[in-house]
Structure formats: structure tokens, C-alpha cells
Design a protein that fits this description.
It contains four helices and no strands. By secondary structure, it is mainly alpha-helical. It is elongated and about 75 Å long.
Length: 100
């Protein structure tokens, strides 16, 4: 009989990962108690550990990153607009010259 894939909530993953990160129980014990694979608990633990430093980043850095992303998005939108206009111009030129 084939088992269906289970999905876990973000809260569940965070709780399990935090428990593993504390180190009170082994990852193997936690996996057995929670009914998940050992590899999954280890993955969640590594993911939590990797994201902890960003949790305490200042709001100024986050705003700077958001502003940078917004400027980049605006630049790309302008480029798309420019290329669209150029494409339409070339299509009209080719059509009027009889190339199409």
C-alpha cells in the first residue's frame, strides 16, 4: 500500500527544528517522537540555524534591500517597455517596406 505524502505546517516545522537546535534530545529521538524522517528533522534544523541571523537584522537594512529590489524592478520594467517599442517599430518598418 502506497503512503500519501504528508505536509507539515510552518509552526510544526519550527517547533521541531527549535527542539533539535536546543540539543536536549537527539535528532533521532525527536524524529521518532514526531513521526518524521531523521533527514527531515536535520534539514529543518539546518534551515532554522541558517535563517537565525537575518531574524535580528535592522529595519534599515531591510528597507535598503527592499528599495534596491524596487529600483531594479523599475529598471527592468523600463527596459521591457523600450524593447517593446523597438519591436513594434521594426515590425511596422518591415511591413511598410514590403519585407513581410
Amino acid at each position: 500500500m502506497k503512503r500519501t505524502r504528508r505536509t507539515h505546517s510552518a509552526e510544526f516545522k519550527a517547533r521541531v527544528a527549535l527542539e533539535a537546535l536546543k540539543g536536549i534530545k537527539t535528532v533521532n529521538q525527536i524524529a521518532q517522537e514526531e513521526g518524521v524522517l531523521l533527514v527531515q528533522v536535520s534539514t529543518w534544523k539546518k534551515e532554522l540555524h541558517g535563517k537565525l541571523p537575518t531574524l535580528f537584522e535592522s529595519g534599515a537594512k531591510q528597507r535598503h534591500d527592499d528599495e534596491k529590489a524596487e529600483r531594479n524592478r523599475a529598471r527592468l520594467e523600463r527596459k521591457v517597455g523600450q524593447l517593446t517599442i523597438e519591436k513594434e517599430f521594426l515590425e511596422k518598418s518591415a511591413y511598410s517596406s514590403g519585407s513581410i
